[in-house]
C-alpha cells in the first residue's frame, strides 16, 4: 500500500508548495490540517512535535516515513516518482531551478513567515504597521531580484516551457505578496508565470482558498 499523508495549513506558502508537487506527481494523499493560530498554534502540540520538532508545516508521511521541509519533500517526490519531473535533465538547468527556489526559500520566506512576525510582535514590541512594512520590504526586494533572474531563464514558465520546481516556489510566494498588498505589475515575467500556472489543475487544486481547512469566508471554487 502506497499511503501519503500531508500535514498542512491552508494559507502556509510552504504547505502550498507541497500540495502543488503532490498534484503534479498525481499522488493521492490525505490532508490533516494543522492550524497555525488556533489553540495557541496546533503545530506546538506534543503529538505533532513528535513528527516535526521544528513545529512547522508541511510534514509528509509516506508509508510511515516522515519528511519535513518543503524542498526536501518536493525532491523526495521527484526521486521516487519518475513521471512529470520537476527538475531539468542537465546539471546547469537543475542548478538554475534550485537557484530560483532558494531565492525564495532562503531570501524571502524566512524573513516574513509567521514565527518571525510573532517574535517581532511579542518580543520586540513591533506594531502591525511596522510588521507590514517589514514584510512588504523583504518580499518586494526579493521579487525584484527574482524578476531579473527570470529575464534569462523563463519561457512559458520559470525555466523554459515546462513546469518545474521553480514554479512551485514562485506561485505561493506571489500569493503571499498579494496577501500583503504587493503589486507585481512591474514584474512582467512573474506576472506571466503566475497567469500560466494558475490555469493548470495541479496549481488550482492546491490553492489556499479551496483546501479542507479553508474558512468559509475565504473559500472559492479555484
Structure explained in plain terms:
By secondary structure, the protein is α+β, with helices and mostly antiparallel strands. It has 2 domains: 4-84, Glutaredoxin; 91-203, Glutathione S-transferase Yfyf (Class Pi), Chain A, domain 2, CATH 1.20.1050. It has helices at residues 13-24, 46-51, 70-80, 91-105, 109-112, 114-122, 128-153, 165-179, 188-198, 201-204; strands at residues 4-8, 30-33, 59-62, 65-68. The chain has a 4-stranded mixed sheet, with helices on one face. Helix 1 (13-24) links the parallel strand 1 (4-8) and strand 2. Helix 1 runs parallel beside helix 3 and helix 4 (91-105) packs parallel to helix 8 (165-179). The longest helix has 26 residues, at 128-153. The protein is globular and about 45 Å long. The mean pLDDT is 96.
Amino acid at each position: 500500500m502506497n499511503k501519503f499523508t500531508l500535514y498542512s495549513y491552508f494559507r502556509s506558502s510552504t504547505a502550498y508548495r507541497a500540495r502543488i508537487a503532490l498534484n503534479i506527481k498525481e499522488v493521492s494523499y490525505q490532508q490533516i490540517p494543522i492550524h497555525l493560530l488556533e489553540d495557541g498554534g496546533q503545530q506546538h502540540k506534543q503529538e505533532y512535535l513528535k513528527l516535526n520538532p521544528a513545529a512547522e508545516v508541511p510534514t509528509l508521511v509516506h508509508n510511515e516515513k516522515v519528511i519535513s521541509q518543503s524542498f526536501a519533500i518536493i525532491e523526495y517526490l521527484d526521486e521516487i516518482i519518475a513521471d512529470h519531473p520537476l527538475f531539468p535533465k542537465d546539471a546547469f538547468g537543475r542548478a538554475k531551478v534550485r537557484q530560483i527556489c532558494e531565492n525564495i526559500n532562503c531570501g524571502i520566506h524566512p524573513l516574513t513567515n509567521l514565527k518571525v512576525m510573532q517574535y517581532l510582535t511579542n518580543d520586540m514590541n513591533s506594531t502591525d504597521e511596522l510588521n507590514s512594512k517589514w514584510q512588504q520590504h523583504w518580499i518586494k526586494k526579493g521579487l525584484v531580484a527574482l524578476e531579473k533572474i527570470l529575464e534569462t531563464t523563463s519561457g512559458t514558465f520559470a525555466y523554459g516551457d515546462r513546469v518545474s520546481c521553480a514554479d512551485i516556489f514562485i506561485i505561493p510566494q506571489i500569493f503571499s505578496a498579494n496577501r500583503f498588498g504587493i503589486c507585481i505589475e512591474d514584474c512582467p515575467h512573474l506576472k506571466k508565470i503566475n497567469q500560466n500556472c494558475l490555469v493548470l489543475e495541479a496549481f488550482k487544486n492546491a490553492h489556499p482558498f479551496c483546501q479542507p481547512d479553508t474558512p468559509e469566508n475565504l473559500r472559492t471554487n479555484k
